[in-house]
Amino acid sequence: MKTTRRRALLFGTTAAAAGLAQSPPPQAAPRSPGDEVESAREAMKRTGEQLATVDLKSDTEPAFVFRAG
Amino acid sequence: MSSAPDKKMADGNDELFFSSIAELSAKLRAHQISAVELTRAFCDRFERLAPRYNALAFSLRDEAIKQAKDVDWELKVDRFRGPLQGIPCGVKDLLAVAKHPTTWGAKPFAGQVFDYDAAVVEKLRKAKAIVIGKLSMVELAGGGGYRFAAASLFGAGLNPWDRTRWSGGSSSGSGSAVAAGLVPFAIGSETNGSILTPSSYCGVTGLRPTYGLVSRHGAMALSWTMDKLGPMCRSAEDCGMVLEAIAGGDSRDAGSAGKGYFHNPQFFRKLSDLRTGYAPVDFEEWAEPEAREAFKQALGVLREIGLPLKETKLADLPYGAVTSTIIRAEGGSAFESLIRSGRVDELADQKQIAGLKAALELPAADYLRAMRIRTLVRKAFRELFVEQDVLVTAATFGPAPKLSTPLDAEPDRPRPKDPGLSRLTPAGNLAGLPALSLPCGFVNGLPVAIQLVGRPFSETNLIAIGMEFQKRTDFHKRRPPA
Fold first, then answer.
1. Does any CB of chain B come closer than 8 Å to the CB of residue A26?
2. For residue B34, is the peptide bond before it cis, meaning its omega torsion is within 30 degrees of 0?
3. Which class for B368: exposed (0-12), middle (13-18), buried (19 or more C-beta within 10 A)?
4. In this complex, do A31 and B350 lie within 8 Å of one another by their Cβ atoms?
5. pLDDT tens by residue, B169-189
6. H or E segment at B446?
7. Which of B69, B194, B296, B464 is the most buried (most CB within 10 A)?
């Protein structure tokens, strides 16, 4: 198939962009994937602790509404 | 139509590419330029320059030219459809465009193709706007949290004002494409700052509509209770015109409010009646030192306009924690199959990958608690808006960061003790409130912006203030270096 400039532009972008994405972004301090997940868990734990500081009455309903049927 | 005039326009007529929607519409109606000529000129420029900013996801040239021919036929018989008729535009690559790739900025979805258009794309086409391309974005709109600007299938969004800096996220391509004059306007999305941040960093005017005003049918879901779609334009007036075209009820979107928006400047309220709350600490301490003068000047312009400014503050609630918990819980669920399949590891940013994996472990009790606190957030805003009509703070506290700066880096100066309105971006998103980002100055050649926030469905007030602000300033008209 003839590859025109247009075709290259239309269909080549993803591949080119994928290539860009494959080059690793700069890392401040290299971390293993396991460390990253552990760090994300810690962050979730901390946000959970912040949420726990708010006094909630039992009749404070979540901010979504269930509608029957 | 010969290609010679298009090339001439593309190469030598920057005025055209930085014209407002109203100016372009006037040229089309006066037959000074045809829709096909305009579309070709913008397609040429978009395809040539968008890669420079990593803003290009896909060109939709062939379809666009076809639609432009239809518009020319209508204009020939003086059938005017509205201000967007024949105006080229771009949409963030989280919106489905039938039979074209919709990648959500993420490698695992690089081959994804839908057989239908997103509701916003349908509405743009109904208004006869010409969608010329899809614009890059942070992968999955950054739902798992991300550390680097390069968290995208398309590479880091580069800022037209300085390509060593970020264009902001997650609507990176929408911000840079409008700023660089590649499209007259673009559609972005916001869950928690994704319209306001790139608008501020790129110096464009961005509108986050009230939750439910614009249908999300056909848009990537990150957080069902927080996702919004909105325009990123050259001016507040342009935002009003685009919002009118894309707003409206839609039974295909469970969050749809069933309301529309009508851009009628003759019905704007008297600006001196709009009580405006602000917190001096936002501009004097939270703002980066070099940006403070620009914010001070912006407050001065708001006073000149006649807005009665009064100090105020937000209720003391953990807005950031509530926001991140809701986005993690809903995003983790929306992308559960991606995470469990292991393809999540193909994403570009390690922090994003880890954030999504951990999200599946988020306790239901935390999500429910966050949603219950959100009820308090809404109540607190209802009370605040008894005293105020509009709130104003910085859209971002300084200009765009360097690409190499980790986005989760600790600030290099201590946080002020008084929070002021500094948490208005997460708080406003939690409450589903509309916001307008207005360019208000430059710091070392980089734009900064204020944000205006109002009650639900009060977009008219924000646009009215924005239009008056932009009559008195020219920051929104400045152009990045060629």
1. yes
2. no
3. middle
4. yes
5. 999 999 999 999 999 999 999
6. strand B446-454
7. B194
